[in-house]
Amino acid sequence: MPKPLRVAVLISGRGSNLQALIAAQREGRLPIEIALVASNKVAAQGLRHAEAAGIPTLALDPRSIPDRASYDAELFRRITAYAPDLLVLAGFMRVLDGTVLAPWAGRIINIHPSLLPKYPGLHTHQRAIEAGDHLHGASVHFVTAELDGGPLLACCEIAIQPGDDPDSLAARLLPQEHALLCHCVQWIAEGRVELRDDGVYFDGLPLEHPLRVAAWGSEPVGCP
Ligand code: GRF
């Protein structure tokens, strides 16, 4: 039995994606150990979920280290002490300094609630509705210094329905996001995903497009 992948999850708020990872791991569906949940918000609800699950937590208030680069360096120094293999940004609402990201290239992913490269940044649901899009979704990508701009691994799609508002769209997307993130972490833990200089590889073959995830437990669509 290979050793489970040690995962550190970074959050800023509710932590529903974290809860999905915890649940999938407990049900034996993810060969991972969640070694740490870290947050830039001391009051983040997700920290309470982690504590309830017996997972070590770390909260570092940016006001304690006002210089951004110094804060990021200290945060990553403390995270590295838990020896994670993979960092998962799941609702972590802070842009990270490129200096701390560099050593983690290919080992740090983010989930973003849009079909990237559309709508990096905030208010993605509102922007998709205002643009008159028919499709919306979420994406998982490797993190680089460019905001929501790193190489794409996978996405999930939902239809925008007449009468949708940002809240209804976000609510319908959320369970799909959870499945998407669990799938991506599973594939990485199984060693099926690799970030190389020329892009993302899945099962040893280059991905021309991000994989598309449907229900939890299904194989991805668009495998090379
Ligand atoms: C999710 O929509 C995620 O895609 C975005 O922030 C939200 C976090 O939700 N990056 P939660 O904290 O996991 O419930």
Low-confidence stretches: none
CATH architecture: 3-Layer(aba) Sandwich
The helix-and-strand class reads: alpha/beta
The number of distinct helices, counting runs of at least 4 residues, comes to 6
On the 0 to 100 scale, the average pLDDT is 95
List strands and helices in order, with pairings:
Elements: E1 5-11, H1 16-26, E2 32-39, H2 45-52, E3 57-59, H3 68-80, E4 86-90, H4 98-101, E5 108-112, H5 124-130, E6 135-142, E7 152-159, H6 166-189, E8 193-196, E9 199-202, E10 205-206, E11 211-212
Parallel strand pairs: 1-2, 1-4, 2-3, 4-5, 7-11
Antiparallel strand pairs: 5-6, 6-7, 8-9, 9-10
Helix pairs in contact: 1-6, 5-6
The protein binds 5-O-phosphono-beta-D-ribofuranosylamine.
How would you briefly describe this protein structure?
With about 220 residues, the chain is α/β, with parallel strands linked by helices. Helix content is about 30%, strand content about 25%. 5-O-phosphono-beta-D-ribofuranosylamine binds near residues 16, 46, 112 and 113.
